[in-house]
Amino acid sequence: MEKTLVLSSDEVKRMIDKRRFFELKKYLSEILPPDIMELIDPLDITDKVIVFRLLNKEIAAEVFSLLDHDDQEELLKQFGEAKIREIIGEMDPDDRTELFDELPENMVKALIKLLSPEERALANRLLNYPEDSAGRLMTPEFIELNKNMTAGEAIETIRKTGLDKETIYYSYVTDCNGHLIGIVSLKDLLLASPDKKVEDLMTTNFVSVHTHDDQEEVARVLTKYDLVAIPVVDNDNKLVGIITVDDVVDVIHEEATEDFHKMAGIEAPDEPYFSTKFFILGRKRALWLIVLLVTSYLSSIVLKHYSYILQVVVPLAFFIPMLTGTCGNTGMQSATLIIRGLATGEIELRDFLRIIFREILMGAFLGVILGLFSFVRARFVDTDPFIGISVGVAVFVSVIVANMIGSVLPMILKKLKIDPAISAGPFISTLLDVTTLLIYFSIAEVIFNVRA
Amino acid sequence: MEKTLVLSSDEVKRMIDKRRFFELKKYLSEILPPDIMELIDPLDITDKVIVFRLLNKEIAAEVFSLLDHDDQEELLKQFGEAKIREIIGEMDPDDRTELFDELPENMVKALIKLLSPEERALANRLLNYPEDSAGRLMTPEFIELNKNMTAGEAIETIRKTGLDKETIYYSYVTDCNGHLIGIVSLKDLLLASPDKKVEDLMTTNFVSVHTHDDQEEVARVLTKYDLVAIPVVDNDNKLVGIITVDDVVDVIHEEATEDFHKMAGIEAPDEPYFSTKFFILGRKRALWLIVLLVTSYLSSIVLKHYSYILQVVVPLAFFIPMLTGTCGNTGMQSATLIIRGLATGEIELRDFLRIIFREILMGAFLGVILGLFSFVRARFVDTDPFIGISVGVAVFVSVIVANMIGSVLPMILKKLKIDPAISAGPFISTLLDVTTLLIYFSIAEVIFNVRA
Lengths: 452, 452
Hints:
The structure is a homodimer.
Chain A: H1 9-17, H2 21-28, H3 33-40, H4 45-54, H5 57-66, H6 69-78, H7 81-90, H8 93-102, H9 105-113, H10 117-127, H11 134-137, E1 143-145, H12 151-161, E2 170-174, E3 180-185, H13 186-191, H14 198-201, E4 209-210, H15 215-224, E5 229-233, E6 239-244, H16 245-263, H17 278-295, H18 297-305, H19 307-312, H20 320-343, H21 352-381, H22 385-415, H23 426-448
Parallel strand pairs in A: 1-2, 4-5
Antiparallel strand pairs in A: 2-3, 5-6
């Protein structure tokens, strides 16, 4: 069971107001950084500053890394120079890169000046990698070994240098040019006899990523090979860092959220719900809704064009929402299956023909079932059998078309290097509205034999 | 860079046909199990059986774990008893549980008989935990230490017993009743002086999960605390297993896929796209589509009820798809934001009032903008200003309502312990069609002053 916190944020606030700092300090030392973060999140900025004074520097740096970027910025403005130096100095390089990424430029310049010369050089180097790349995600704190060491010497090296490393469970064997030639696990070193050579224990059968690879690619490779950490090499093929699985878990969550938002037609806000400013989110949402609203102009044009049929056979209008709804839903289903398959790497573009074939069959299957159902359903609303026939045939044809568009569109977008996730949801349903209405009224025109 | 495979599946097939087994065996020993899996995936079953003969037993078990359940079942039918015993015996207990979970019951019974008595008892115990629970996901292969050991003795224990353990990087300290009292990392053991007591090195400030906790909860806790492994305790609070982060990464992918599918109204197929049988997927898709089609009966009823207005003012029909589309999209946006926030744990039910307040403001903001846009847009389609006013006012009111329903519905479902993901997409848009049409025609009725 996850520990239940003994104190609530309100109680922490009251302790601060009553200056019961000793007691609070003791309590904070008994809980884990993610819990401290949750506890102080609702507090106002001056109370947060006080809590940070009560934490030791390692914990302070960890809690600080977990806060929202807005809070981090506010706190840095409140902290004295010594406190800033302490926290920034103690943060992991990858967390620090992420922080600098989000802060205003002049603030980053001021902060970088507070770092030691080596850390400053490192921070500048990491910030030079493209956003969302492996270079931004990696930490340069890994254990480097020489292939001629013995297992015993290797373990001794790990004991001496391991304290500040991101992981000591995998060591990276490099040649004199800094090229990665093998990986050896602490398990293998520890289970081997101490005089065995690292060269004989390391595996040369490993995967690595490049500094410029996208973080989504990093997540894919790490997941595929079930790794705890993956080495990152630069343009000269030199080992420059490692990425550990905990950072990749965050990437996986982030990328899934991004896809969910894109599919709902929200131009992906990259902050959590409550941290996103109202008008930023509002603008992002409104933008897509307006685009779709303007696009749906086409459906009005189609309806206006066929208004002579509607004037004669008013009941045809009763089934418009059902028709556009059913086809939108069908298209959304096939689009989601393909988008998710592409995202997890389980569907690839070379499967194109196989998917088309499968989805034609699926469309026909769904078309027959839904066509029959909607024919029956139409008879309940209106007694004219020709209405039922028009609706049933229209559903049959448009479900096949909708299913096809839903599965083909994401693959075309992927081919054009556009994120396929945007094709689902609102986008596809607006597009399908027009096709569905065209099909419906063309069929009705024939069945009722009405001419303009 | 990920290694590019030298041979394609076709070439492997040709090597098998030409009986160039020695060469193929050498090649397979140079690539990693996930790559072997991809390479043999397109081969037919007899060729797969041949490849498995060429793999050593550890690699064979790993590749076997990675295959689709259909392939696993087929292969087990082809393998001799010795081969089955070898592969099943070598598999990790958690992978074995997953396999048994998917195979037909009589086959599982036969397989369990082939296991050693201890493994048989273990398999039966693990299979007794509920599906998708921590008990199913865990492995009982962890390192157990006593608090009175020294660091040196602990490392010696790890060296002796570590070979078959899922991880040797964390050891679990238990008391005489098997209750977990602390966790110590190999890092701390290795960096400490060898005569230091485990008791002084272990942390007692740890989190654990319960055997019956849902795998989604396991993923949430492990992600929150950035853990590599999490201990699992049973009803008596005894330590019975651990779950490692690599298995959780799979759970995160799986749960995200499940939510994507639910949001698209596909009753979550739990197999990848191509492995799902056509009619199983077809039935699942059709089921939801039929439910929604029947539900959309309500929208036809509303339209039929107001047909006297449509008969007089036909152009009102031109804007039905635009209206239902815009409101569906708005509801989908807010539902997605809330559903995803609930899934990542970043929104909680106690935020209810705060969300309502925020979404009322957001609805009003979007309503004003979209109302104005649709008023202008309506004027382009039809010159009657009263049509434009009806459309604009209807969009304003229904966008506010849609936004509210979209954000409240997932929270109500969550409260009722129903997965909120099902409320997005098709479900919400069908529901909103009805409300939107009711609002539209009530407003038009007043503006055009038409009575039935």
